[in-house]
């Protein structure tokens, strides 16, 4: 894959994210799309953001659905 083994080790152990460049290399090596790897990273990032910001997110009141009236 032409990447340092430390990078792969850090990704596996959750200490480093998958960059677009790494996603391209992983996709070529494993024969899957780069989107596969980027989606895994996105889900990981969203999960941890949701955990870290849970209290603040719970305090946000959603906007009610409203129909716009044109005069």
Polypeptide structure, described:
The chain is mainly α and 71 residues long. The chain has a single domain (5-57), classed as 434 Repressor (Amino-terminal Domain) (Orthogonal Bundle), CATH 1.10.260. It has helices at 5-12, 20-30, 34-52, 54-58. The longest helix is centred in the middle third of the chain and has 19 residues, at 34-52. The protein is elongated. It comes from Desulfosarcina ovata subsp. ovata. Keywords: DNA-binding. InterPro entries: Cro/C1-type_HTH, Lambda_DNA-bd_dom_sf, Toxin_antidote_HigA.
Main pleated-sheet profile: none
What would you give as the CATH superfamily? lambda repressor-like DNA-binding domains
CATH topology: 434 Repressor (Amino-terminal Domain)
- Show unreliable segments: none
Gap from first CA to last CA? 62 Å
- Strand percentage lies at under 5%
Give the total of beta strands: 0
**Secondary structure category:** mainly alpha
Assign the CATH architecture.
Orthogonal Bundle
CATH class: Mainly Alpha
Number of domains: 1
What radius of gyration results from the CA coordinates? 19 Å
- Give the overall silhouette: elongated
Output the number of helix runs. Answer: 4
Summarize the structure.
This is HTH cro/C1-type domain-containing protein. The protein is an all-alpha fold and 71 residues long. The chain is 61% helix and 0% strand.
């Amino acid at each position: 894959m032409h990447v340092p083994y430390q990078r792969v080790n850090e990704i596996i152990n959750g200490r480093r994210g998958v960059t677009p460049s790494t996603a391209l290399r992983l996709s070529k090596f494993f024969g899957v799309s780069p989107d596969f790897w980027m989606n895994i990273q996105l889900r990981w990032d969203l999960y941890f953001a949701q955990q870290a910001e849970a209290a603040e997110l719970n305090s946000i009141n959603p906007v009610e659905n409203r129909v716009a009236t044109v005069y």
